[in-house]
Amino acid sequence: KDFLFKKERENINRTQTLLKEYKERDKSNVFKDKRFGEYDTKISPEEKMMKRFAMERQQNYGKKSIYNLNEDEELTHYGQSLADIEKLNDIVDSDSDDTEEKGILSAELTAAHFGGGGGLLRRKAPMGQQDEEEEKPKSRKELIEELITKSKQEKRERQMQRENAMELTEKLDSEWKDIQALLAHKTPKNLEPERPLIPDEYDKMVRELGFEMKAQPSDRMKTEEEFAKEEQERLQKLEADRLRRMHGIDEQEKKKPKHMSADDLADGFILDKDDRCLLSYKAKRVEENQEEDGENGGNEREEESEPGSEDAEEATAEEIDAIDSHSDLESDTGSDEEASENEEEKKKHKRNKKKLQEEVEQNAKIEAARSELPYTFAAPESYEKLKSLLSGRTMEQQLVVLERIQKCNHPSLEVGNKAKLEKLFGFLLEYIGELATVEPPEVKTIDKLVLPLYHLCQMFPDAASNSVKLVFQDAAHDMEEMIEVKGRAAFPVLDMLIYLKITKILFPASDYWHPVVTPALVYMSQLLTKCPIATLQDVVKGLFVCCLFLDYVSLSQRFAPELINFLLGILHIATPKKGVLGYTLVHPFRPLGKNSEQLLVQDKEDMETWQKQNLPLHIMTRLTETLCFDLIKRCAALYGLLPSFHEIMQPIRGVLTEHLPVSRYPKHLQELHQNVMKELENKEKHYYPLVCEKKKPVPLKLYTPKIVKVLEFGRKQGANKEEQERQRLIHKHKREFKGAVREIRKDNQFLARMQLSETMDRDADRKRRVKQLFNSLATQEGEWKAMKRKKFKR
Where is the sequence biased in composition, kind Basic and acidic residues (predicted)? Predict the structure, then answer.
């Protein structure tokens, strides 16, 4: 019975608390009952009502309604009482123009306009005359005239006061000027000469700050789009100037005003060609000189001058005959004409010479304009167009062409420019690869072309990463195909090595994972593990890949086992034959074979003539241990903090100390070998050997019985009071924890039952409505069939 009662009480409590919270889980509004004693069962209903009534009266005590006008309180407006405002003591005088007394009305004017006449309109008089005035009241017209006269008089008085004040002010100003000269006090000059003040550092700094240019608030920083627009306009202007110079059009000739006749009416007729002649008056004759128009005009003038010269010779012959036939008086005139003709021929010769010189200068300008680079370039749509733009030009010109392509096709200038520049990155990458495959490779040009490639990569990182990723995917696919066909792969050519070097410059290599750098690292590790060493060129390429590997992991300090294995293999092929190796070689190196002694040098003369020097990639000497030693030294500096550093470098240390014939090497190489060994040996161990954990030894089991004091039957008691309290708390914690878990389990079961009941209610409601719908549809269908049968019967 107690169990059932307890269970029923728990269900009631959960229904009132947990179920209520479950139903209000998605609701934000909460109703709170703030009535006094509503849920207090100790207070009777009568006491609740009395207490609520008392609290309501206490709350409303002393509070007055602001809308109750019957209460005895004074209403105000802007701090003034409404009762005083209703008396109309301060009324504006509309006839007064004085700004100081504007808005003030006299009592008489107020009484005259708003008093209604009668006794209120009467003026105040002494007590002795009140009886007489009451006997003789004034009419309304007289009162109004009296008010007007009084207001005019007051206005006149105020005007006089203002005039007097202005006169007094002017008089005071004039007197002050006279007194001011007397008040001027001049300090007497010192007899001793004043010493010039030497400015200190602070004074100099203050003066410099005073003369500094201050930033103008109107100058604002231009946006990237505005800079691109200005640069495009500048290049377009320069290109138009170049084209004008290339076609032989000079700005001065273009701006030169044409000769206009005095009789020209300037009616605005437009002709296809200006055929007007320049008119000049000389020696009472009109000489027509047509304007020159290019080389064609010059040729026409030369052709026209030939018949003119024949006519001139005939004219001179006739003049000679005339001179012989005429008298001596006409000899003077003939000599003058000959002198004038000689002067004209000299002038004509000078003009022709000047024209030829101008034509030579013009041709030189045209050739110079043609030899200049264009200032505007369209973005190339294919690799062939880019190659045609860059091929045959110097390194500096190629950089200028790429820079102008980027400026003329900035993404902010036009909608399609972004796609064009994204394609330009791929074309430029392909062009760099082609430069690397020529003989000899143009490494300097490639080095300079990396800068525009970097700018494009910063502008379009997604397109650049996709292009470089595609290059590595193709290279990895070619390597897999070669391994399937030939069973082995070969090191790539120089273009792929340059792509790996450029990738380190364009993208960050310190990330844990990068969409471009990570595939590049995987590709380099495949090169070091799948490409066997067949020639000395393979050795150089492999060491170059090792250098790139170290550059990639220099910041992240990522461990590359392929790198260590390749360096170990390079040292192995530089050692003579030996019995026991002491280390394990991994593919692509073999302990014995055709290329197991590829780098072994047996000629002592070659050893003695060796010198360390920087060599290009396409030249290889017989000694590559130098580069290998340098790489080992870099690896020691990079991986020196690893706990397993000594175990990793143990095979390399064994080759350097036991198998490598260092005694036959030259002195410089021996010194380098000693430096590498010192670098490897000086690294401290960053780990501690594993040892057993130090703990108190466990004593052997004894057969002596353990006596425990028992105070209560069936219970163990601690040795002291603290131990007993501790055991009690532990037991209480376990009991409370189990009880809390049990209650949580019961709550979950209760909520599951509620959810199941809600689901069943919804399903039952849905079934009921579906059944009702089917019934209605069946009824409608039956009625429709009945109507259809009736129609057929008819």
Answer: 135-169, 212-254
